Amino acid sequence: ETPMVFSILKTEEDPEGRMLKLLAELGGNLNDVSTENNLNLMHLAAGTGSIGKMSVLYGLDPTCIDVQSPAVETSGPGSGSLTPLMLALDNNKIDAAAWLLSKGANTSLADSNGDTAEMRAGLTAFLDATTAKVLNYGE
Predict the structure, then answer these.
(1) Signed CA dihedral, 99, 56, 106, 112: sign only
(2) Tell me: the pLDDT tens digits for 39-64?
(3) List of residues 6+ apart from 36 with CB closer than 8 A
(4) What residues are paired with 40 via a beta bridge?
(5) Helix residue spans in 1-139 (DSSP H)
(6) Where do the ANK repeats lie (predicted)?
């Protein structure tokens, strides 16, 4: 893994993403992907629920919240075109999903099976509850 990917995966040691920010300032590649699963930095941060690192990445490139992942043959059907929101929902990282929604994450993007984040979550009520949480975020 690259230093940028490694800095995302070390969530307990650096929850605010100081190392990630430093690496980016030193020329780290924001387009790095994990060699294990071909996910980019925002996907990895969302999947681990690391809001501090998501915040750093968003500050460096706001478009990263809706980047879709490429398909990976070994990951099975539906593994392609995942968004950070889908990964947060799939991993039950509700605070991360709420944060992404508060930044305007697109809920209508579909994965390679045609499923949206709402469909992948399995419950419309879940997104409604998450949206309600976003409206009260920071209170």
Answers:
(1) negative
(2) 899 999 999 999 999 999 999 999 88
(3) 1
(4) 33
(5) 3-9, 18-25, 41-48, 51-60, 84-90, 94-102, 117-121, 124-135
(6) 80-112
8 Å CB contact between 74 and 51: no
DSSP designation for 39: -
Structural domain count of the chain: 1
Prediction pTM value = 0.79
Provide the residue range defining the domain that includes 43: 3-135
DSSP H/E element including 73: none
pLDDT digits (tens, 9 = 90+) for 75-90: 444 457 889 999 998 8
Under 8 Å between Cβ of 117 and 85: yes
Distance CA 36, CA 43 (A): 13
Structure tokens at 121: 């979550």
Find where tokens 């993403």 sit.
17
Which three-class secondary structure state does DSSP give residue 40? strand
Q: What is the CATH number of the domain that holds 15?
A: 1.25.40.20
Distance (Å, whole) CA 123 – CA 100? 18
